[in-house]
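Input record, target 12 of the design panel.
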């Protein structure tokens, strides 16, 4: 018989098909407008804004002379033309004639911590401090124009009115428009970006700072490319070709920012709204545009057929239960969608599942056959006779082993697409349960031991319990069929040592161990929402195994099979 050869062919085909489907089912639904909104929380520039009084105090105590030097080149001073209330400067430390470190807290994560650090090590020449300051000026001008003209289309050079500019305050929560994304005041009452911020929904930069990474027709980096060209062509001695970003540096900067936002996939939204936890402090909700089914089909066949419907179902159910998306609505949506998906798969794979359970019930008979041919793994004649008798046994009980492989080939892309749909759900990127944010990975939360983590302020204990429950249910779901099979075969006497039987048992044991390790590793890497999905799926698998075993047991008793 060529059963082994056929199995290898099917396994190879499954792996190949799975690889192709995995690549095609992981399309990112985020469009360029979404990317611009997500990029700004991570890269807000380098300029610190403060009141006129705080600026005067800073300048008076500036022993390094940084304020005076920045004023001389137009980097420090009044932030908005015609507004005498808001001032700016760029905190930085000069390392050498060719390098520096940016000291603003908002610049330390992506810009300083990743982009400039790696660019310096790669030998790329850094732009001047004034270059970064001018990019912030352009961003501020674009945000001011958009705030005054919310329905207007910003183009490079657009200006807001002098009267509007003069009315902007620094950080007044009661004002129509404030400038900075946060209230940044330390315990001494001095403006700073080092203090943990409080979000302001009426902040101009928080709402419209994304224009830094947008462009005409929402083209990613469109405006910045135009600003970069204008600064490159400037005759200012602190700008121009020698002081601005070179073509290589600008491309490197674009690639790093793009890589950051491409790691975010939660853009399947059934309505326009603000979602997620973005930025270095994971404290920004950003605007995500509505995605419809037609858009999903442009991403791919399976994206339209399976991925979007899953994301749409989670989003719709979560909104229906809790319009505020506080957390519990998403949990209930996950439970409902998981039950629906697993129910559909159960209907499709019912015959295959029954075959599998019948094979488990026949383990005593199979063990007797294997014991009858103890040398089947080395003796070709015994191996052939064992295979013939096994196939005859399957045929008598109407079992088709290869039906399980065919169903598995069907189920694999479904599971991948469900996974992609849940990862892409904008609703699941928002909200928290017992201080655990659904978009945070279990790994990040478990290793976040800052502050009063032992009081579960960061969701640490919630993440730990979720991980243990998820891992436990997954392990039990995998081990339960083997435990049942072992109990059914423990009373079957071995006529002699059976290497073939021992080899099969060792193989199954190694597969189970591998899957346990895989579950633990993936459990740490998964967002909390996916951990909940795996937990629910594990519980359903356990229940499915127990119910089908009960049905098979009753069926066997009726037929007089022990």
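The sequence produced for target 12 reads:
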């Amino acid at each position: 018989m060529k059963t082994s050869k056929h199995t290898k062919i099917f396994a190879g085909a499954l792996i190949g098909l799975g690889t192709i489907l995995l690549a095609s089912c992981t399309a990112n639904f985020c469009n360029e407008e979404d990317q611009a909104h997500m990029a700004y929380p991570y890269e807000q520039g380098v300029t610190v804004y403060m009141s006129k009084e705080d600026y005067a105090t800073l300048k008076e105590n500036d022993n390094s002379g940084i304020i005076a030097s920045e004023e001389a080149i137009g980097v420090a001073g009044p932030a908005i033309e015609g507004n005498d209330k808001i001032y700016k400067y760029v905190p930085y430390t000069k390392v050498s004639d060719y390098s520096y470190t940016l000291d603003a807290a908002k610049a330390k994560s992506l810009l300083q911590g990743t982009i400039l650090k790696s660019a310096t090590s790669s030998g790329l020449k850094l732009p001047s401090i004034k270059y970064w300051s001018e990019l912030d000026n352009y961003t501020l001008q674009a945000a001011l124009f958009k705030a005054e003209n919310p329905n207007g289309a910003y183009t490079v050079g657009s200006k807001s009115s002098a009267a509007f500019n003069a009315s902007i305050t620094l950080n007044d929560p009661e004002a129509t428009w404030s400038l900075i994304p946060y209230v940044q005041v330390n315990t001494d009452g001095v403006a700073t970006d080092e203090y943990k911020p409080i979000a302001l929904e009426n902040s101009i930069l928080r709402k419209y700072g994304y224009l830094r990474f947008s462009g005409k027709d929402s083209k990613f980096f469109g405006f910045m490319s135009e600003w970069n060209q204008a600064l490159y062509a400037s005759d200012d001695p602190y700008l121009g070709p020698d002081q601005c970003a070179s073509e290589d540096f600008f491309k490197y900067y674009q690639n790093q920012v793009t890589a950051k936002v491409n790691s975010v996939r939660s853009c399947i939204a059934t309505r326009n709204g603000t979602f997620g936890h973005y930025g270095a402090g994971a404290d920004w909700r950003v605007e995500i545009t509505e995605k419809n089914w037609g858009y999903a089909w442009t991403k791919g066949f399976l994206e339209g057929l399976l991925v979007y419907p899953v994301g749409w179902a989670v989003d719709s159910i979560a909104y229906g239960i809790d319009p505020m998306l506080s957390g519990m609505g998403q949990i209930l949506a996950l439970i409902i969608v998981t039950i629906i998906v697993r129910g559909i798969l159960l209907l499709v794979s019912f015959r295959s599942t029954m075959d599998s359970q019948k094979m488990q019930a026949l383990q005593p008979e199979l063990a007797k056959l294997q014991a009858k041919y103890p040398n089947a793994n080395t003796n070709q004649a015994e191996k052939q006779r064992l295979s013939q008798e096994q196939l005859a046994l399957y045929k008598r009980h109407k079992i088709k082993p290869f039906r399980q492989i065919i169903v598995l080939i069907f189920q694999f892309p479904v599971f991948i697409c469900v996974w992609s749909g849940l990862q892409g759900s904008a609703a699941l990127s928002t909200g928290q349960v017992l201080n655990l944010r659904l978009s945070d990975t279990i790994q990040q939360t478990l290793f976040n031991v800052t502050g009063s983590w032992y009081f579960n302020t960061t969701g640490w204990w919630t993440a730990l319990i979720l991980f243990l429950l998820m891992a436990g249910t997954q392990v039990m779901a995998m081990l339960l069929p083997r435990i049942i099979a072992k109990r059914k075969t423990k009373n079957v006497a071995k006529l002699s040592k059976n290497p073939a039987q021992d080899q099969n048992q060792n193989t199954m044991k190694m597969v189970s161990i591998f899957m346990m390790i895989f579950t633990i590793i993936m459990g740490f890497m998964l967002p909390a929402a996916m951990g909940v999905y795996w937990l629910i799926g594990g519980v359903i698998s356990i229940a499915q195994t127990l119910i089908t075993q009960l049905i098979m047991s009753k069926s066997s008793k009726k037929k007089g099979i022990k």
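The chain has a mean pLDDT of 83.
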